[in-house]
């Protein structure tokens, strides 16, 4: 793979489906000269590409654009705020009247995350409170005002182990207004409208409700009738069994009994409660209780304050779907308990009753994605509203006015591949009226429709053909004068139809396609553009999407607990975001062009990126409090263009266009002065200049790079070696000061192996000491275990060290530092791979390193493992390395050497997170626990040490580690 390609692919993430904006498409056209300045200029009323203009949908008429500019009116049926265009009002009224019920209040997400952020600078707390109050008032349904009920939070309720309390700018108090006088442990955004919770029997207000368990739908669980809340001894809760797909498929029978069993050792959730089949002799496991219910039931079960039993009340609609059950929870007598314990258990019981009365533990999983989608939009609009135009804000706000069916249909098709979908094949059980949902989305501008009333040539014919099945393609080809049905593969049939359409043989193809497919729908361009932006701003990367919510809810992924303290916005102005988005589009075009081997378009992307970067201000290392932190630079257009150009250098070097590569490298080094890639750019510039027969200039570049503070690790070592090689007399007489260090000898060990193959370009396979086939690393492990001194070890390269770093420096990584955490889906702070990481946490980091140096590393490791096991953290691999092995490594390495290594990573994580020796070996010398460790880099018959590996070996030797290179050669008779 070309150098920089993988990095660019990660930066792009999810590719955008919408076509290029007209301005960018024109610039990338071969017939168009490149402009001298950035084309990403837009006024406040504009949007991204066509989505930024006055059009809000596929139509350009007054109401066809979904009435974005129309006034907002209240629906006389449900009281919701809707836009006042004729189409929107009529469609909304039809749906309301057909449904015949008032719309339920949209409530908090099931995700249980703290998405509200502490803001210590602009916008000020006062302004933020006003903004939250304004937005909350706008979103409160008329149902809330008619009920005239209140909702209060128990501010004394503590957070769980995975959730820490944060300060909210405001929340609803008992009178329904916003209050700012309390700090609560919350899992919902500050603009979430909280529901009214009343006692199902007495209709009295339930005032004690844990914020961690805010209800997600109207209550539907049954509670045994009782006149006094405190006197309830037995309650019945209707809920479901979740997680069945992770367990054996057991035949279910209705009305069969079930039992509950605590699972405190569960790596994903320490509050987990297993559901067992009581009818089975071995009590087969059916799954788990929902996390929300388990969280409040666990304390009572752990205190042995309740007895639980239940039964299956229904069978799931799908084979592995959620199983409806009813559990009966009876309070036990507490005669033998102390008075303090009785009071504590009584308070737990009262809170449990209040929560199960207000919550719905039968919410279908199909509604979760809708709630999460709304949460994502609300969070971005609350924290990044300044980067959206008024047209875009109005368009996104209209999503809340859509019916549940409309919202669910949109989210469903947005998360699918597409782009086109047959309406006849769309079927989701949570969408009751598909026709109304489709028309509602069409009139609101969220989808485009392809039907007999739309001219198909307006759309991409290749996408339309992709809607056909293989039999349908064959039927269309049979009706043509020339039979072309000899081809059978799907792509062959599609290419045949497309070629026949373009050469005029099958001009009626669009109508024939619609005859087979019927009406088709896809996400509109404006909706796709804005939702791509929303998702990018929410997750801050291109890799994560809405599936991250579900991974958390199902317990597959657990994110660390940290506070989001924000003082600077990532995008200061709207124009910054638009330029960044345009750069991402150029990167995507280049990536797609490389896939299609379209080198002309690749060259255009490189030229455009070079032109854009030339017109931008030179990047400086600004450290003033008013200036955004340097680690925000990854969200700038210049960062993206520099990645495109880095890949472009590899493209030019592959084609031996060294002059072009040299030009780009010189421009990168002159425009971007504070970047770790300067080492790679300097090295490639020196190499390419030597290719062009300019050794003096090559040497000068290498000498400058060797003393550049931003050139580090392997790149610096490589440049130093180049200086020594090129600076022979008479070109240079003085020997550099680092000559002796670079020329240090590295210990080598040679072993022989019997190879299976000796072909160049293939992975070396050898017969191991046990007679089984293995790679060179496994062969070396066997050698050190048998003949090398009884070493134990693992082939982990730097992985095991990254895991140890993450565990021992966990509190340092996730400490409360401003601006480094901007999303609740981060596995590391934004500044981890920058100099700012160690500088901003120096005191805390040195305190941890002092403990490591004093011999407390093993104790710290055990504590961190038990506290955070299963939580996602950059560099930490919970599955590959056992706690036993990690303890052995820490014990045998020694506190002094381990502290030096961890400090080295903390100071410059990015430069040193790769290239460590292949093998980590350890052995204990006596029963008292004394041991030693060894690091080994393994090289096959034709392998050589890379510059990064050499640099690591020398650093480890400086730290006092036992390091060596193990060279595997073939047995003489096999050579």
Automatic annotation (TrEMBL):
All residue ranges annotated as the UBZ4-type domain in the record: 72-101
PROSITE patterns: ZF_UBZ4
GO BP: any one term: DNA repair
Keyword Ligase: no
SMART domains per the UniProt record, alphabetical: HIRAN, VRR_NUC, ZnF_Rad18
Enzyme Commission number(s): 3.1.4.1
Signal peptide positions on this chain: none
Name assigned to this protein: Fanconi-associated nuclease
